[in-house]
Amino acid sequence: MSFSEADVQGALKNLIDPNTRKDFVSGKSVKNIKISDNDVSLDIVLGYPARSVWGEIRAMVEAHLKAALPGSSVSVNVTSKVVQHAVQHGAKLVDGVKNIIAVASGKGGVGKSTTAVNIALALAAEGARVGMLDADIYGPSQPTMLGISGQPDTDVENFMEPMTNHGLQAMSIGFLIGSDDTPMIWRGPMVVQALNQLLRQTRWDDLDYLVVDLPPGTGDIQLSLAQQVPVTGAVIVTTPQDIALMDARKGLKMFEKVGVKIVGIVENMSTHICSKCGHEEHIFGSGGGEKMCADYNTELLGSLPLDIRIREQTDSGKPTVVADPDGQVAKVYKQIARRIAIKVAQMAQDRSAVFPKVVVQNT
């Protein structure tokens, strides 16, 4: 019995990608179908990094096709390819960076920086090329969290080479100042200029994602950064506490006003589990993140516990995703990161490279 490409496409229209919840054909993941007698081979190219589930998807697609095409011999190759997606109108793109994910909060103390670095590490663990930009000029924490010391090298054009650790490319004002206790006594315009230099004078090397840890708040500095950094999508970090949710709503509205898409909300410190007795308690309240998502028609990407190990691991320079990669908390970070990547993959692509540049000259 011989098979056609239409037979293969028809069979895969009934198979749902468990991550995107779309079939592989409408998701445009099916590539390079080749048929020779009863031998069928094809590629599944995912639009999001998912190295940890490539084997699972390969087995699922092969089993489905063998059942749909009796007598066939099926070979499936699964890979991921991240493409560039559109940013807010008027923002200049950054060389070497496909997508920028801004991680923000309406107020400090909600675990934004810890969430940002673990999201970046989770994306890298799934096979993406990832960078981490510490945009919190007044309180840079990423050098400590990533366990990086020293200063970046510069080239003849005064571009800085990103620092690296745990598979991430990183840049922070913390690499450039004298010591950990040196205060940044700068006015707003100086902060915005410094961030632009860190962003655009770093030799980012072919990044799929640059995760930007924005300073907390919704003032003039945050608004300027949201307007000038070419953001693919923003993630809002909050706790279930009412006052934190009030400020998180302001952060969400700020991004909406400047045309930045909201990827979703991460609820940090959602529950506390006693290390002595195992009792679980919602010490900051419960259900606040879900209600906010319902009010603003966005997604709750995940909820993280208040766990002393997260703090200890991050302070030691080995955040949870690398310190305990198979643990339950790392699993939640990875689920959040994969959901972010999937939502970005479903956004409008940047088509600027499709159109030729027209130059008008006087002759």
Entry summary:
The chain has 363 residues and is α/β, with parallel strands linked by helices. The chain is 33% helix and 20% strand.
Question: Can you tell me about this structure?
Answer:
The protein is of the alpha/beta class. The chain has 11 helices and 13 strands. The strands form 3 sheets. It has an 8-stranded mixed beta sheet, sandwiched between helices. Strands 1-2-3 form a 3-stranded mixed beta sheet, covered by helices on one side. Strand 2 (39-46), helix 2 and strand 3 form a beta-alpha-beta unit. Helix 3 (112-125) packs across helix 11 (328-345) and helix 5 (188-200) runs parallel beside helix 6 (220-228). The radius of gyration is 22 Å and the shape is globular.
Helix/strand layout:
Layout: H1 5-12, E1 30-36, E2 39-46, H2 54-68, E3 73-80, E4 97-104, H3 112-125, E5 130-134, H4 142-145, E6 163-165, E7 168-172, H5 188-200, E8 207-213, H6 220-228, E9 233-238, H7 242-257, E10 262-267, E11 272-273, E12 280-281, H8 288-296, E13 300-303, H9 308-315, H10 320-323, H11 328-345
Main features:
363 residues; alpha/beta; GMP Synthetase, Chain A, domain 3; Rossmann fold; eight-stranded mixed sheet; three-stranded mixed sheet; 11 helices; 13 strands; 33% helix; 20% strand; globular
Q: Mean pLDDT, as a whole number?
A: 87
- Distance linking N and C termini: 66 Å
Shape: globular
CATH superfamily of the largest domain: P-loop containing nucleotide triphosphate hydrolases
Count of DSSP-assigned helices? 11
CATH topology name of the largest domain, in short, is Rossmann fold
At CATH level 2, the architecture of the largest domain is 3-Layer(aba) Sandwich
Q: Assess the beta-strand content as a share of residues.
A: 15-25%
Q: Helicity range of the residues?
A: 25-40%
Low-confidence stretches: none
**Strand order in the largest sheet:** 6-7-5-8-4-9-10-13
Quickly give the structural class.
alpha/beta
Gyration radius, in Å: 22 Å
